[in-house]
Design brief:
The complex is a heterotrimer of chains A (308), B (283) and C (417).
Chain A: H1 14-50, E1 52-53, E2 63-64, H2 68-74, H3 77-108, H4 115-126, H5 133-144, H6 149-156, H7 173-198, H8 202-210, H9 215-244, H10 247-252, H11 264-274, H12 278-307
Antiparallel strand pairs in A: 1-2
Chain B: H1 11-40, H2 62-68, H3 71-104, H4 110-119, H5 125-138, H6 145-170, H7 174-181, H8 186-197, H9 199-215, H10 218-223, H11 232-238, H12 247-268, H13 278-281
Chain C: H1 2-23, E1 28-34, H2 36-39, H3 44-55, E2 59-65, H4 68-81, E3 87-90, H5 95-101, H6 107-114, E4 125-127, E5 130-140, E6 143-146, H7 147-152, H8 162-172, E7 180-182, H9 193-198, H10 200-204, E8 210-211, E9 214-215, H11 221-235, H12 248-256, E10 260-264, H13 270-276, E11 282-285, E12 298-299, E13 301-308, H14 315-326, H15 328-338, E14 341-342, H16 351-354, H17 356-367, E15 369-370, H18 380-395, H19 401-413
Parallel strand pairs in C: 1-2, 1-3, 7-10, 12-15
Antiparallel strand pairs in C: 3-13, 4-5, 5-13, 5-14, 6-10, 6-11, 8-9
Classes of the chains: A mainly alpha (308), B mainly alpha (283), C alpha/beta (417).
């Protein structure tokens, strides 16, 4: 099965063939070892918890209860709301991260400004990315405080009549959290696109221009299709990571007010560390795993198509 | 060597649009951070003053002095560098090999393995914490740098592998063939040919890995115990007390923590200069 | 004389070294995980530990310090993996669940083994008849009043009844100047505002949210009247905006900046407010009671509690550390540096004599009694959150008082089966 894509001219002897077949596994072995021990074992444990009752914080021994945790979680209206909010957060983040990341990468790739200025802009543009999530949460809480600088500017410029309760109003808390997540996450796309743009050969653009394409056309027919593999990988990873986003939401709104910005991660955390329902928390983890795997299957299938 | 944004003909209009766009984007990205920097020079009370001022009479370096003269906090920085640096190197080495394998070989279980590698990061880390913690204790890694390094590798490898597979996929296979005709093996193809050409991709993966390791909080807190093993995000969280926060010191510590990362990025950003990659080698 | 002292000291030191060398064979290291060290002035807590080590040769204390907000999660994880420290700092809201987990040792047993007389202890947190936590120091929550705002509003003295409080809050409120009479932190992340700023109104009038160990929120006049009272203040617009995302740490900044006339707050903040805004002129008074109530007032409080891990191999030594921290002299000193009230009845922190505000607070403390009904309840933090959600809906006018209290009662009952 294993074959490097170069055409094999003559069949090598069997022993060599087997050794050759092992080559790809050899390259993968450190990864597989690490993930098997440090990832699969804990996941299997969490799966086991999800089928049990009374784990960790308990005065009775755990008992096997099958899928009834799943039934309980899936019929909980708070879970469904958290699921809905998570999807809103994830989809909005993926879309805006993509738009901002790509626009900024294209802007930063320009040769209209000198290399020094460009380097400076590049550094400014990745700023949101270099801070730990808890400090981003603290910063945005300051900015969006009713007496914070955002309201001050809006009121000074006459854009708002009164102080807006960005994080403490049930109507806009989720939108504010989504905005903060977009702000803090786009540089990851931008840097990946910056790298990806370097891989597009200039002669493609030359050829495009000879065919009479304008800037938009070049972007639409050359840049986008060539970045497509990166775009798909990023979108998938971002979707999965955003469903895990915890600190940022926990430290800005805590999922409130009245669960208005509750997402699966805050819901799970409260179950685990506030209500000590570790079985139920493990169950939601498994539901999230199932969702993410669905996305991953789609991605792997897409990869295969791209390779063919 | 014209790029997409530099078409002849409408260049002056384009230039103005690009510069306006760049400045607007920089404001979006930078103004909140500017506020953080400004806050790090204020007194704790002035941070909450209304109307807010960017710079006021409470301006001082006190918060920075408090952070820099505390040997404990300096130790947090050292730990963070050490862990983040090692994680970046290890992740890149392991991830590049795995990406090469996925990009250049067909083998049994390839799709399944790919799916598993992506799948393992699909469980929210917070729910894995307790079983994971137990495992680290059982492996006798508790309160060591290796606990953090291996953990962050688990977090960063899926991304590194996906991205490296993607970058290697964009590189033409003629390169491999040329090496094979010269009698070189897969090792030479990977480390001598593909890796140097993929530097922009490697840098972007490296930057990501470094950032993640630098900023991770939850596992850093759980898997270490003693103060001499703690990292910067925990140092910042220690300033968030039960009853009050040291706002300006938190800000100062974040600013200080971000500086080396920014300098690193500034050094590496030249790898994003057009023409480094594929375009220049595809003859 | 001086030389004599030095000689004596040297001899003591040599003796200690000798004893230490003998004891070194079975030296014990106690791990003590807590969030106190970072909250105290640098080095002060370690100094106390050094003193303990000097008194108990052969025992070393390793301080494991973490941020308060994650201490509980760390204890849970530590207990689940057998890495819990020998001695742990505790909050009353966690005790019930750790006892259920079996991770805390019964301190009653340890006291008996050590022959300890517990009459000095101001409080012990007991479950099923055994002590699991001892409050080392307590932070009570009286009302802080901004005197400048109060006088500018024409109010003569700090309020002592609900009506006076409402009148003062209304008079101080001036939205055009961005000044409000009162502030309630009701963030979902830290729901302890329910305990300190909301339920405290019930306790201040001698009321209770429990009956026979079970939640009693419905048809409870004390609870309904307090909730209706808070709702009336909310509707009158005297509560500072942003309440639903506000935490205790934000509340104090609003007060320090002179934007809030009054707040229910921990004494731990007195020095902080002075340090951050030396110009602020403020006083401390008891939490207002309902009109006509003249019984003792319940004072909400938070504790730095201490417990011993069930899986500790050095429980006897661990108890020695607890005993050390609870001894009259050490407890006085710890209270002094923490600006808290002592857990030993015979301790008196210095600041009670030297500081007017603390003296006033001490009077409030002595006239009332410590009341925090959430201490020792199962999943206490979840209870606060389950109360908070319908409470927010009630304040917003999306629920009636009955709906709110019934919802909270039903949610609470699910944890008391």
């Amino acid at each position: 099965m294993a074959s490097i894509t170069a055409s094999t001219r003559e069949r090598p002897p069997a022993r060599l063939r087997i050794r050759k077949q092992l080559v790809p596994y050899a390259y993968l072995s450190p990864t597989l070892l690490l993930l098997a021990v440090l990832s699969l074992i804990p996941i299997a444990t969490v799966f086991y918890y999800s089928l049990m009752d009374n784990v960790i914080i308990t005065n009775v021994p755990p008992s096997f209860i099958g899928i009834s945790n799943y039934a309980e979680i899936l019929s909980d209206s708070n879970f469904l709301q958290a699921l809905r909010n998570t999807l809103i957060l994830a989809v909005a983040s993926v879309i805006f991260h993509f738009i901002l990341g790509l626009s900024f990468a294209v802007l930063l790739n320009t040769r209209l400004i000198g290399p020094g200025t460009r380097a400076l802009f590049r550094v400014v543009y990745i700023l949101p990315w270099v801070f730990t999530a808890s400090i981003i949460a603290v910063l945005w809480r300051l900015l969006l405080n009713p007496n914070g600088v955002v309201n001050f500017l809006l009121i000074s410029f006459g854009l708002a009549g009164e102080q807006i309760e960005w994080l403490s109003s049930r109507q806009i808390a989720l939108a504010s959290v989504v905005f903060i997540n977009i702000w803090s996450g786009y540089p990851f796309y931008m840097v990946s696109f910056l790298a990806g743009l370097q891989g597009i050969p200039d002669d493609l653009y030359e050829a495009g221009k000879i065919d009479g394409a304008n800037n938009l056309g070049l972007f639409r027919f050359i840049t986008l299709p060539l970045l497509r593999p990166i775009i798909i990988s990023l979108a998938m990873l971002d979707f999965i990571w955003t469903t895990h986003q915890f600190t940022l939401i926990w430290m800005t709104t805590g999922g409130g007010p009245v669960r208005a910005s509750e997402v699966l991660s805050t819901y799970t955390y409260k179950l685990a560390f506030s209500s000590y329902e570790f079985s139920l928390a493990s169950t939601t983890a498994m539901v999230i795993l199932a969702m993410s795997t669905f996305v991953a299957v789609f991605y792997v299938r897409n990869q295969r198509l791209a390779n063919e | 060597m014209n790029r997409i944004t530099t078409q002849p003909g409408n260049s002056s209009l384009t230039k103005i649009l690009v510069i306006v766009g760049l400045i607007l984007g920089a404001m979006f990205a930078g103004l909140p951070v500017l506020w953080m920097v400004a806050s790090s020079f204020k007194s704790n009370t002035q941070i909450f003053a209304y109307p807010p001022q960017l710079v006021d009479d409470s301006f001082s370096f006190a918060a920075y002095l408090a952070v820099l003269t505390d040997p404990q906090k300096v130790r947090f920085f050292v730990n963070s560098y050490l862990v983040s640096g090692l994680v970046t190197l290890c992740t890149l080495a392991v991830g590049i090999m795995a990406g090469f394998s996925f990009s250049r070989y067909e083998f049994r279980f390839k799709r399944t393995l790919n799916l598993i590698i992506i799948g393992v990061q699909s469980v929210p880390p917070i729910t894995l914490m307790i079983p994971y913690f137990g495992l680290i204790v059982a492996l006798q890694l508790y309160n060591t740098y290796w606990a953090l390094i291996l953990t962050y590798m688990v977090f960063t490898l899926p991304y590194a592998i996906i991205m490296m597979t993607g970058y290697f996929n964009t590189l033409p296979r003629d390169l491999d063939e040329a090496v094979m005709i010269d009698g070189g093996g897969s090792f030479v193809i990977l480390w001598r040919i593909l890796t140097p050409i993929s530097l922009p991709g490697i840098v972007s993966v490296g930057v990501y890995t470094f950032m993640l390791a630098w900023n991770e909080f939850l596992f850093a807190l759980t898997l270490t115990k003693t103060t001499d093993m703690r990292t910067v995000p925990i140092g910042i969280q220690l300033l968030m007390g039960q009853h009050s926060f040291e706002w300006n010191q938190m800000m100062a510590m974040s600013v200080l923590g971000s500086l080396p990362v920014l300098i690193l990025f500034l050094l590496f950003q030249r790898y994003f200069i057009a023409g480094m990659a594929l375009g220049s080698v595809k003859g | 004389m001086k030389r004599k002292t030095i000689t004596l000291l040297l001899m003591v030191a040599m003796l200690l070294v000798a004893v230490g060398a003998v004891m070194a064979q079975d030296a014990v290291t106690l791990e003590f995980s807590q969030w106190w060290e970072p909250e105290l002035p640098a080095g002060e807590f370690r100094a106390l530990m050094d003193e303990f080590e000097a008194q108990n040769p052969g025992i070393t204390v390793e301080l494991i310090s973490g941020p308060y907000s994650t201490t509980r999660d760390q204890i849970v994880a530590g207990a689940a993996t057998g890495t819990m420290s020998d001695v742990v700092g505790l909050d009353g809201a966690w005790v019930s669940d750790f006892v259920k987990q079996g991770s805390l040792a019964s301190l009653s047993d340890l006291m008996v083994e050590a022959g300890y007389d517990d009459s000095e202890l101001a409080a012990q947190i007991q479950l099923n008849g055994a002590t699991y936590m001892i409050p080392v120091v307590n932070f009570v929550y009286p009302v802080f009043v901004n005197l400048d705002l109060m006088e500018a509003a024409g109010v003569m003295s700090p309020p002592s009844t609900r009506d006076e409080f409402a009148a003062a809050a209304t008079a101080m409120t001036n939205p055009d100047n961005n000044v409000y009479g009162w502030v309630i932190p009701l963030s979902t992340e830290q729901p302890n505002g329910i305990q300190n700023d909301v339920m405290s109104w019930v306790w201040a009038t001698g009321g209770s949210m429990m009956k026979d160990g079970l939640p009693n929120l419905v048809d409870n006049a004390d609870v309904s009247s307090a909730m209706e009272y808070i709702k009336s203040l909310w509707d009158a617009g005297v509560v500072a905006p942003g309440a639903f995302a506000m935490r205790e740490q934000d509340k104090v900044e609003e007060f320090t900046n002179g934007r809030v006339g009054m707040m229910v707050d921990t004494l731990a903040h007195i020095n902080l407010i002075r340090e951050r805004n030396p110009e602020l002129n403020f006083a401390i008074t008891a939490l207002p009671a309902a009109e006509g109530y003249d019984g003792p007032r319940g004072l909400p409080y938070a504790s730095w509690g201490i417990g011993v891990a069930e899986n500790s191999e050095n429980k006897a030594e661990a108890w020695k550390l607890v005993e050390f921290l609870m001894s009259a002299d050490v407890n006085s000193r710890l209270s002094s540096i923490a600006n808290a009230f002592p857990g030993n009845v015979n301790s008196t922190p210095d600041f009670v004599q030297t500081d007017e505000l603390f003296a006033a607070a001490f009077e409030v403390f002595q006239a009332g009694y410590l009341a925090n009904e959430f201490v020792g309840l199962p999943v206490a933090e979840t209870l606060m959150r389950e109360f908070e959600e319908p409470f927010q809906l009630y304040l917003d006018g999306d629920m009636t008082l009955d709906e709110f209290l019934t919802t909270a009662q039903d949610a609470w009952m699910a944890h008391f089966e």
